[in-house]
Amino acid sequence: MSQSPNIAPPAARPSAASRWTVCLCVFAVAGMIGLTYASAPLYRMFCQVTGFEGTPKRVAEAPKEVLTRRVTVRFDTSVSPSLAWEFAPAQGPQTLKVGEVGLAFFHAKNLTGKPLSGTASFNVTPEKVGAYFSKIECFCFTEQRLAAGQEVDMPVQYFIDPEIEQDENMHDVKTITLSYTFYPSHPRVAVSTVPSSPN
Question: How many domains does the structure of the chain reveal?
Answer without folding.
Answer: 1
